[in-house]
Amino acid sequence: MMNTSCPRVSFEFTGRFLPHVYFLVFTIGLVANGWGLKSLLQKWRKLKIINVFVLNLGLADILYLLTLLFLMVYYFKEEIWIFGDAFCKITRFCFNLNLYGGIGFLTCVSVFRYLAIVHPVRMMGRLTVTHSVVISIMVWLLVSIQIIPDIFYTKTFGNTNACYDTTHDTYVEDYLKYSFGRTLTGFCIPFLITLGCYGHVIVILCRKNTTDKVQKQRSLKLLLILIVLFIVCYIPYHVLKNLNLWSRVLLKQHMCYEWSNRVFIAHQISRELVCLNSALNPLIYLHGNEDIRSQLRQLLQRARQMFRHPPPTDSASVPMTELTDDV
User: Fold this and answer.
1) CATH number at residue 226
2) Which of 26, 78, 101, 220 is the Cys-Cys partner for 68 at CB 3.0 to 4.6 Å?
3) Residue-wise pLDDT tens for the chain (327 aa)?
């Protein structure tokens, strides 16, 4: 329902929640991605084709996680940006590079798994590590081309001291068109490709009775991980971001709707969810690399042993033989 008077949107929600989510994602993501990348680089000479895409996915995550420190300061200071216009654009560029680069490399992983399972004979020896490196470079280039126009939109405006993740209301109509186009090419098309690849893979695995059960389980687990990433992180963000931009366009035209404030709050929640991809992407490491899984199992086993058999205290450090001798 449209209102004659436009209600003021509350921005307090952003400052209360975003800094804490960013801190959590930064801590978990940095540890998980750092460990995963270290494990991959230790086996560099034995690096598999799929691990090249996973390596690039980790690099995109690390790049974004480093910018969260500045965003935490920004929201703790009640959305006052103190690092200058240029660095504001760099920070937002890194976010988009991580977001759409991550989606691109997840799509590459999906296509590779599809070719390896559905067309193993045709692809045997044809796709090498060199090819995967070239494909990775192309993904970086295509994503950069997609998000470079975002740099030319105003991110700071006048004396507001804000660092907009989109742009100022003055240019919101043009930005909405750009956002729709980027959503289509950077999210919708890769999502449909990923869904098609894994849908076909599941059908093939279910039809083949001779398929290795371990391979079937791994494919199902990876499909589940990707579904969680898209449903939790990517889909809400893109839908709500464009709805929020549209509501801003309507608000600028003095067309106010009751749902505008709810969309704004939901969009802020989706921003928190989309940054979780940097903490959830390491699940791909655990799935795609047996060495990392074995290291994790050893770490968990040591942790269980420590809790089951805690180190002896000083009073309990006396050998049992000495205690029995006194009896």
Assistant:
1) 1.20.1070.10
2) 26
3) 455 556 555 566 666 777 888 888 899 888 888 887 877 777 666 667 778 888 898 888 888 888 888 888 888 887 788 888 899 999 999 999 989 998 999 899 888 888 887 887 777 677 788 888 999 999 999 999 999 999 999 888 766 678 888 998 889 999 999 999 999 999 999 999 988 888 888 787 777 765 567 766 777 777 777 788 888 889 999 999 999 999 999 988 888 777 888 888 889 889 888 888 888 887 776 665 555 556 656 656 666 666 666 555 544 444 434 333 333
- Residue 137 is assigned to a structural domain of this protein: yes
Q: How far apart are alpha carbons 64 and 45 in whole angstroms?
A: 27
State the total domains in the chain. Answer: 1
